User: What shape does this take?
Amino acid sequence: MKKLTIISSVILSSLLILTGCGSNSSKKSNVTSKVKVVKQSSSKKSQKGVAKKKSGSLWNNDKDSHLEDFMKQWGEVMNQTYTKYDGTNNIQTTSGMNYPQDFNSATVNGQNVSMAWDKKGTGKNDYNVVAIYNYNKSSSSSITYAFTLADGEPIVLVNEGSGNNWSETKNKSLKENFVNIFDGKATHVEKPAASSSSVKNSTKATEDLGEGRGGYVTTPEAMRGTWYSKGEDGMKKLVISEHEITLISADGETNHTILYKRTKDTPSDVSESERQSKEEWRSAGNIGTNGISMRGWYQLQGGGEHFFTHEEEINGQKVPLVLYGFGANDLTDYVYYPSEDLANKQSDAKYDDINYKF
Assistant: This one.
């Protein structure tokens, strides 16, 4: 009997040991499974970021040479000659800036940012500048492009004003081709005709839009975008593109216009239906390098409307503005800001260097 008891105890102990081993095996299996799940959940974005980090550079000499070739061709098409920053000597613009030195005080859309020259494009700045090109239009005005990488994304900034405020270019060709160069793809530029005479003939044919329209009037690039002005009647909006201007009143009424060069005298005997059919057309012209004026297509009397780019220092920051006025003079009726927030905060502000109508 005693022998049977000993045998039973041995069997029971063995069963307990086997049960414990099974339990530990199950726990170990669960831990392994969790690790696998974590590895499988790694996103493509994370993997891409790791790959970029390993490469140590987002920009290289091949891409830089490709961009230089593109800018030469693009400059020919635009009839502009651009100077490239050589990596050593500051580019001096006729607007009074020195780049990349003056990036340390630059703003983008009126906001303070960190912007600096970074040959590899991997820095911790908001905008890492990998290439700079400048065109001096006159003795006092220039166009400067900064080709940047922001969080690894290619963005082209432009400065066409007299200060140090930048904005993202609206030029489709520059934006798309910079992305192509960054991705290692081919670029495309529409090359000008072979001879100067054929260029003139081509331009004339392109600009002949019929009905007295000698082509479009182009707005200053610094003026393009969406702007806001706050008054007693509420928030007004101004949207400016390359050849069009849209005014939106506080109650939502929209006045959309297309800017044309008028080549024929304005007729005086025009039917009402004809006037309505050309309601969006404007006879427009540039005022210097920073302004646009426009009148109704069949307008014979009265003043027109005008828009000017402007810059003010607000709370220690240089902020781009658009000044709008109507009438026979250049006085300002409304000041437009680059954001609703600024328009709200500055709704009662008056600036000494702006000629207000009221």
Observations:
- The first helix runs from residue 2 to 40.
- The longest strand covers residues 304-314.
